[in-house]
Design goal:
about 260 residues; mainly alpha; 2 domains; YwaF family protein; membrane; transmembrane helix; transmembrane
Length: about 260
């Protein structure tokens, strides 16, 4: 427990590290899935006013979590801390988008939370590259990582209860939002040699790095944006099948 709050660069002689695809990883996934489904079912039993309060509490949790995470970085990170706390990580952007969509009720933000939040939370929990081998199992970073990304998935499922959310118009707006986010992150990465939004120069994640090797720096960002648009179309199509046709098996979904 001596390294519970320690930043990964300062950990020496780590005991019981968190490793991706290990038994402890499976345990974390199982516990997270159990809690997500329990809270999702609990939310479904609430009336409209109670559901609204539930979402407001989640929004407050997201903002408090981000504030505590930033405070932890300021406390424990001693290397380029100002770059570390820039809100350009995908999880940080999801935090703010989730909170803003609760307080503003804008459909475009709710679409982002539903689709991007589900992908970001799911992929991160299945492939926890940001913590695997870097932090102990019992550490603030590991526990917070799974709490936050589990909350992303829960919040996404809550938004997806609205069947009208998965529209073509919202999907187009969301692609513009994603393009702006990734473009800003890419520019910052080029300028400061950071890894925001996984599009560093070069990227540290192997399969993204292979794309960079094939495209080079000039075409890297356009290819990433094209791939993102394809992924979004596929994900939205699948979500329509699950969340719309399940309730309306004999109706066509209107775009």
């Amino acid at each position: 427990m001596k390294d519970f709050f320690t930043f990964y660069k300062d950990i020496q002689g780590m005991q019981l590290p968190f490793e991706a695809f290990s038994l402890i990883h499976i345990v974390f996934l199982a516990i997270s899935l159990f809690l997500i489904m329990k809270l999702y079912r609990y939310y479904g039993k609430l009336n409209t006013i109670a559901q609204r309060r539930f979402q407001v509490k989640m929004a407050i949790y997201f903002l408090i979590e981000e504030a505590l995470y930033t405070a932890w970085l300021l406390w424990k990170c001693h290397d380029h801390v100002l770059l570390e706390i820039l809100p350009l990580e995908l999880c940080s952007l999801c935090v703010y988008m989730n909170a803003f969509c609760v307080f503003t009720q804008k459909e475009s933000l709710r679409f982002f939370s539903a689709v991007v939040g589900l992908i970001a939370g799911g992929v991160a929990m299945i492939y926890p590259a940001n913590i695997s081998g870097l932090y102990p199992v019992f550490s603030y970073r590991t526990i917070n990582f799974y709490m936050l990304h589990g909350a992303f998935i829960l919040f996404s499922l809550i938004q997806l209860k609205d069947e009208t959310l998965l529209s073509y118009e919202h999907m187009k707006k969301n692609f513009v939002i994603l393009s702006c986010m990734f473009t800003i992150a890419f520019i910052v990465n080029v300028m400061y040699n950071t890894q925001y939004m996984f599009v560093g120069i070069p990227p540290k994640i192997s399969f993204i790095a292979s794309v960079y090797q094939m495209t080079g720096i000039v075409f890297f960002l356009p290819v990433v944006l094209i791939v993102l648009s394809i992924i979004q179309v596929v994900v939205v199509f699948l979500l329509r099948q699950v969340f719309y046709r399940k309730n309306h098996p004999y109706q066509e979904y209107k775009y």
